[in-house]
Task: structure prediction
Amino acid sequence: MKLTQMSWVKDFREFANETSAHGVKNIFEGPSKIVKILFLLVWIALTIYSCSVIVSSIVRYVNRPTGTKFEVLVDSYESTDGDDGQPAKRKAIKFPTISICSSNKVRKSYLDLEGNELLKEAWNTMDMYDMDELVKLRKRFNDPEDEFVKNNITSMTYQTIIENGGPKIQNVLKCTQRAQECKDLPAFQNDGGFIAMETSITGKCFRINPNGTLYGKMGDYGSFKLLLWADIEDYSQRTKDEPAQGFTVAFHDNTTYGSTMSSGFLMSAGTYYKVDLRRKKEIRSPPPSGNCNSSIGETSYGVYSEGACILECKDKALYEKCGCVNVVPPNNFVDGKVDEDGNPVGRYRSCTLKEWVDCGMETYTQWFFDFTNHSRAEDICDCSTPACEEISYEAQVSSSAISKPWAQNTFNKVGKLINATPFSIPELGIVYDSAEDISENVMTLEVLFTSMQTSEIREVVTYTSANLLGDIGGVLGLFLGASIFTVLEFCQFLFFSLAKHCCNLGGKKKSGAERLNDGDGDEKEKMAL
Result:
């Protein structure tokens, strides 16, 4: 039997003549066998190539590749300071929360207070993180007859020492915006003030613009200025021996905390710093296209971030081993738990000095060693998952030494203030009474924005279903002259062909003799006509 007489070939020939795909019918109706064979080979080659492109496009779509989309937005906020008192949108940019931590974790004046001699001895030993000295201190802490135990030094908490012995809020000498005192700004009238204190593992820090309510204009028109007092004479001996003295400053969104920042800017006293900021917002995609985790809620260190994850990991390691942490996190009551009396219950509690010496310090040191070991970091704390939305402030810092005339002029204004308590404490040898003290202790920080715009970087899927359909349609149309209707026609052809030849649908198949007789009958009818 000839190939063209086979039933399925006849069916495909009919399909080729009727389909909307161009060129297929030339396989059967070409002017010569060479042309038919040529069309057949080209059609097979293009079909194979098209199938490979379609498969690769589907694989790419399943993998959901992503890219970044950059947009520039102008911030605004709702204000009722108009003449009519009605809410209105004002174009302004949101200032960051500024965390400022002194290099001096515990003041000399606190450790030198009468009655704190034993506390000073214990703190100086613990602050060295010397394991040999720690063993000696642990032995004394566990001796009921030792003075540390008798005077209840061992029952004091680590956090209490930092809170009571940290920098004083008066060390923020001045805060202004547009020559107006911060305490008088409308942004801080109903929001708890322009400053709050944050106790962290780095010490007691100043949290300026704590709730993120301050807005302003770009450049000098909306600059925010702070005047800070380093209190060098009140540095503990441990801090005085360190090479860096002054403040560590971090700029971040109010939904996070300075302790979560991986690093900050080290700023020295006796210097005028000017910080040019630019606000940036990153929005990442959750799975399957991205790798951020949108199900992670607020942490005990504010909204989720890599830094918050690391600190929570540290707290969990300490709490699981010792039942306490060195300093409780700022959102310790984030879970909303209460006891039988309805009092809030926090996730963690601060270690007593005995718990810190017996367990906490050694556990923290081991955790720090393991986490900073890059080969083990992922096993200790898996904090590689990024936040789905993150706001950051890019800063460019410039500085200049405070001039002697400015120091003298400032001393003339605040000399009486710094020469009295709580700054000067003559009985402890802390006295500030000259312009030179201004040059050694005052740090000025000016913060401004270079633009009113927020740079938004959004992670987007770069290959969507529209791209997939476009690629498939382009390949089918360009190489095979096909369309979606052609695909439907081909599916219909396959269905009816399989039903006809494999499932015997559409009537019982006739035998060869019956088909021959039918052919003779048809021939007779034609002759009669």
User: Anything to note?
Assistant: Confidence is low (pLDDT under 50) at residues 1-5, 512-516, 524-529. The first strand starts at residue 66 and ends at 74. The first helix runs from residue 7 to 18. The radius of gyration is 39 Å.
